[in-house]
Amino acid sequence: MAVIEACLLEPDKALLQHVLPGKEITHSVLSNTFTACTCLVYPTGVDPDSSQEAVILRFETEKDTLEHTANMQRVAELAIPEYIPRLLQSGKFVLSDGREVYFSVTTYIEGCIVLKRIWNKLTEPQERHIMGQVSMP
Predict the structure, then answer these.
(1) 84 located within any domain
(2) How far apart are alpha carbons 135 and 137 in whole angstroms?
(3) Rounded distance, CA 7 to CA 122, Å?
(4) DSSP E strands: which ranges in 73-113?
(5) Parent domain of 59
(6) How far is 93 from 43, CA to CA, in rounded Å?
(7) For each of the chain's 137 residues, which pLDDT tens digit applies?
(8) Which one, of 87, 121, 93, lies nearest residue 105 by Cα?
(9) 104: domain CATH number?
(10) Residue 26 phi, psi dihedral angles, 5° rounding
(11) Residue 119 lies in a domain
């Protein structure tokens, strides 16, 4: 096996084609590290904010983290489908450089705020209200 240089994880053309097959694709990296990448993927020439085909692609080199997140997302989608992006596909893929990655593809919701980013700014009553909305009866 060839030695792989340490570099930020980014999607290659084959992975993008796997996500939206048969289309010319544009993507925008939203965040990436050496082991994880999240990007917006959409057909070239389409405004992602108004396209039904725009999706979020997340892929990681560690299986457990993404698999756990995908499973939690499936459960949350059943409980509160109006608030959770739909999980369209998930699986394993080998990038052109030989790295094995685990990926998930979800619907893109324009203008959404990730709760993890604002949780520490919420008041305790706001946190309780949110937890009451998402807890199972």
Answers:
(1) yes
(2) 6
(3) 36
(4) 87-94, 100-107
(5) 13-110
(6) 21
(7) 444 456 888 899 898 888 888 888 889 998 889 899 999 998 888 887 777 788 999 999 887 777 888 888 888 888 777 778 888 888 899 988 888 999 999 888 877 666 667 778 888 988 888 777 766 55
(8) 87
(9) 3.30.200.20
(10) -120, 145
(11) no
Q: How far is CA 76 from CA 41, 81, 86, in A?
A: 23, 7, 10
Tokens of 49: 């904010």
Angle (nearest 5°) at CA 57 between 52 and 59: 170
- For residues 51, 119, 65, 80, the Cα torsion angle rounded to the nearest 10 degrees is -60
Asked whether 14 and 95 are in contact (CB, 8 A), the reply is: yes
Q: Which runs of E-coded beta strand occur in 1-136? A: 25-32, 36-43, 55-60, 87-94, 100-107
115-122 contacts at long range (C-beta below 8 A, 24 or more positions apart): none
